[in-house]
Amino acid sequence: MRNPIKPSGNIYIVTAFIFLITSIVAFAPTSINLISKIETGQLPMPPLILHIHAASMSLWLLLLCVQSILIKSKNYTLHKKLGIASMVLATCILISMFGIDIANIEGRLGLSNSNTQKFLINSSGLLLIHGVSYLFFPLFYVWAILSRRKDRETHKRMMILATAVLMIPGLGRLIMFSKVLPDFGLIPIDARHLYMLVLITPAIIYDVYTRRLPHRSYLIGLGLLALWIVSAHFIWGTTWWIEFVKKLIGLT
Question: What gap in Å lies between CA 14 and CA 65, rounded to an integer?
Fold first, then answer.
């Protein structure tokens, strides 16, 4: 039997740049528009937490590209040094991600006196959409860090999955605001999950091509994501979920 082809680092570089380009296309137009409105006094300066999140996410995506190139070029020393920066960025991303959603919910709460039910529906949808990032970004990232010395193949793939689940807000902009991506009639959360999986499809296909089967870390990671995707589909818009969010934010 022929031995499997040894995987190349090119697929990680390609995937990292797919993430980066997707984010640029998603956020650049609205960011430029936001800056213009701030300069003309039409909008106030966004809160600090938003700046922290935007900066940390941008640096994360750039770092993923750089790290993939360094591994391909066998510059392991610099790769390890820059890996420390990822720990700082991961912390900033996680904290700012929660901070932005808390600020958004508090802001909507202040405007919801006339329609509390609509506020609850919107807030429950927001938390469920971002749930995949809340749960799986820290899980996949910690998994990547713990395996970085003894299992580099797992480390690389977990970094890809950790970044993929962070792409949900950008994908939402491409679907809901700029209409670059069609939603195919799917509910908002399903459309985002679909395109999240599309983003990592090239990496999965390459694994199948080179290894005959996806690496076990992909199988486990995708299995966990599948459980969430199916669960979120059935939770979406349910009365008990809306009631849970109502209690969570203190509207009891």
Answer: 8
